[in-house]
Amino acid sequence: MKQQKLKTFTILLVDDKPENLVSLEHMLEGEHREILQATSGNEALKTVLRHNDIGLILLDVQMPDMDGYEVARLLQSNPKTKDISIIFVTAINKEEQYVMRGFEEGAVDYLSKPLDINVTRAKVSVFEKLYFYQQELKEAMVEKEKVNKQLERFMYVVAHDLKSPLSGAIGLLALINEDERIQSAPDLKEYMSIVLGATNHLTEMITSMLDYTRQSEMEQTIEDVDVHSLITELSRLLFPPAHIRITTEGTLPVLSTNKLKLQQVFQNLISNAIKYNDKKEGSIAIGGTDKGEFYEFYVKDNGPGVAKRDTDRIFRLFERVDNNGKEEGSGIGLNIFKLLVEEQGGKVWVDSQPGEGSTFYFLWRQRY
């Protein structure tokens, strides 16, 4: 289990009088807090540049050489320090002109001397909580970017490796289709037309996947997607065996989303359900429930199911679970499915009974 890193809140106290710094530090010291001190504006600027994790500065306004206003202005002008919260500590009267100047220079609050212990502690605690919320948000954004890059890399490798052999197969099918025996047999001609149409469609999908990896997320096309029509089209193009029936349950929504991504999600789930079904009469059902911001979809099958010990492992990259003594597949499909869903804030899970079947669930954002 990953050990959670202890969070530290770093506060810089700036005052030209050492006795004020000692008093303020005693007032604010606490568990998981680091207190730094500076006795001048210049020292404060140097301290900030040496420490990239300062969450709050308590800055005295009246200091010789460089006052608090000038320090705040310089901090605000530097992209690396402009987001640090600053509380001015001042004995100056609270006339509007002084207060407004402080806010213009980058202050977020004021504390008036002599300091009230309870008010000072309460304000610093608020900024401490705000700092940790901001850090969590930044970490979440970094993690999301990692997921996006990983997804793009996987998609490019898979799409690139598929495109060449598929193009070759299309060429061979086109040659076969020209054979007189095919042209003279209406049934065979119709089947060949379906196969060529499906392979050309798959080529278009792969080309779209390659295009996706070359574009930023903001450039992805958002459109209204009729999920029922999407499932109907996929069910036809995946060529399920005659003994497997694919159905939809209830009314499926129209979403404003990226069609390619949602299509990949359903294609992965339905393809797996077809591939691993071990029943004489196979059944795959797709449905869902409106959950507000997200739509909760499910793909349910009556296949071999997944052992409880494997229900989390199957979503990991290159993980393959035992299927009646056989390890099949690359272990990429369900990982890409998971990444696609999590990329836009959703989540995935599975409910399965060995021997009876599995139901894969995922939350998909209804509007971008």
Description:
- With 368 residues, the protein is α/β, with parallel strands linked by helices.
- The protein has 10 helices and 12 strands.
- The chain has helices at 18-28, 41-50, 68-77, 96-104, 117-177, 180-183, 186-213, 227-237, 259-276, 333-343, and strands at 9-14, 33-38, 54-60, 85-90, 109-112, 223-226, 244-248, 254-257, 282-290, 294-301, 348-353, 357-365.
- A hairpin with a 3-residue loop joins strand 9 and strand 10 (294-301).
- The relative contact order is 0.07.
- Residues 317-322 and 324-331 have low confidence and may be disordered.
Give the tags.
368 residues; Rossmann fold; 12 strands; 20% strand
What is the gist of this entry?
The chain is an alpha/beta fold. The chain has helices at 18-28, 41-50, 68-77, 96-104, 117-177, 180-183, 186-213, 227-237, 259-276, 333-343, and strands spanning 9-14, 33-38, 54-60, 85-90, 109-112, 223-226, 244-248, 254-257, 282-290, 294-301, 348-353, 357-365.
Helix content: 40-55%
Looking at the structure, the CATH topology of the largest domain is Heat Shock Protein 90
Q: Could you tell me the radius of gyration in angstroms?
A: 31 Å
Instruction: Going across the biggest sheet, name each strand in turn.
Output: 2-1-3-4-5
CATH superfamily heading of the largest domain: Histidine kinase-like ATPase, C-terminal domain
Task: Give the topology, please.
Layout: E1 9-14, H1 18-28, E2 33-38, H2 41-50, E3 54-60, H3 68-77, E4 85-90, H4 96-104, E5 109-112, H5 117-177, H6 180-183, H7 186-213, E6 223-226, H8 227-237, E7 244-248, E8 254-257, H9 259-276, E9 282-290, E10 294-301, H10 333-343, E11 348-353, E12 357-365
Parallel strand pairs: 1-2, 1-3, 3-4, 4-5, 7-9
Antiparallel strand pairs: 6-8, 9-10, 10-12, 11-12
Helix pairs in contact: 2-3, 5-7, 5-10, 8-9, 9-10
